[in-house]
Specification:
Blueprint lengths: L2 H21 L5 H14 L2 E3 L2 E3 L3 E6 L1 H7 L3 H18 L9 E7 L8 E4 L1 E5 L2 E5 L9 E3 L9 E8 L5 E6 L4 E4 L6 E2 L10 E6 L2 E6 L6 E3 L2 E3 L1 E4 L4 E4 L2 E10 L1
Parallel strand pairs: 3-4, 11-12
Antiparallel strand pairs: 1-2, 3-5, 4-8, 6-7, 9-10, 9-19, 11-13, 13-14, 14-17, 15-16, 15-18, 18-19
């Protein structure tokens, strides 16, 4: 652990744990999210001129904290992965694929604490790859549960470019990003479109569009949005480029 990170962790434990005991408050998802973001920052590496970050995060929690999450637990890992992707995109970090978060019951972790283990980014000659990181202390790990995903929508997206050309795209169940940068899943040649402009993804059985803090914003059916669920017939505007949702079916 880097010296600064060690100091930060000591201060957090000093300040947070007495408050948790005093108010008997359960561990909050935002605390886990912040630890994942800090782990991402601590493990970023410059590879090929780009800041690359891990895409696998194992969140070690005390059994009591996992139990306290209750019915929120099955969806929490997916939501944390969504937030990790948004954080990486907002900082223009490179990922091999969309982040995955696994919650792990760990009896060696005190109640109220969070330990995040990652797959480290290791540069190789001529390529960038991820190598699995070593164990964190002497842990006895048991996967908390298998996250069950609801039926995901599969959509047909039609693009209309400013020059009059266009294309029809069949979208699968995975998240895609749209923007000007070459590392997007769908690259748009439009100067008014941000490098990473929007993300389309299946969430809780819906097709969701999220604006990634773009410079010129995003509009759906003429209204500015930050995040919205989409359906067949909806019209998405980013820059001078227009997309319409032709069909949405459960995948």
């Amino acid at each position: 652990m880097q010296p600064i990170a060690a100091v930060e962790r000591f201060l957090e434990r000093l300040l947070e744990r007495p408050a948790a005991r005093l108010f008997r408050s359960p561990l909050q998802p935002i605390q886990i999210q912040r630890r994942i973001e800090r782990a991402m920052e601590n493990e970023r590496r410059m590879v090929g001129g780009r800041a690359r970050v891990p895409d696998r995060y194992r969140v070690h929690l005390a059994p009591a904290d996992v139990a306290a999450l209750g019915q929120r637990a099955p969806q929490l890992a997916a939501d944390l992965a969504d937030e990790a992707l948004a954080f990486a995109r907002s900082h223009e970090y490179s990922l091999d694929q969309a982040p995955m978060v696994e919650l792990v019951v760990d009896r060696s972790v005190p109640a109220g604490e969070v330990r995040v283990a990652v797959d480290r980014v290791e540069p190789q000659v001529g390529a960038a790859s991820l190598a699995a990181g070593g164990p964190v202390g002497d842990l006895t790990n048991t996967r908390a549960f298998q996250v069950e995903s609801p039926p995901a929508p599969v959509a047909t997206l039609v693009e209309y470019r400013p020059d009059g050309r266009g294309r029809r795209l069949a979208l699968g169940v995975g998240a895609i990003t749209i923007g000007r940068a070459a590392d997007n899943d769908l690259v748009v040649d439009d100067p008014r479109v941000s490098r990473h402009h929007v993300r389309l993804q299946a969430r809780r059985g819906m097709l969701v569009l999220t604006d990634l803090d773009s410079a010129n914003g995003s509009r759906v059916n003429g209204k500015a949005i930050s995040e919205v669920a989409l359906g067949a017939g909806d019209r998405i505007e980013i820059g001078a480029t227009v997309f319409t949702i032709e069909a949405v079916t459960a995948g």
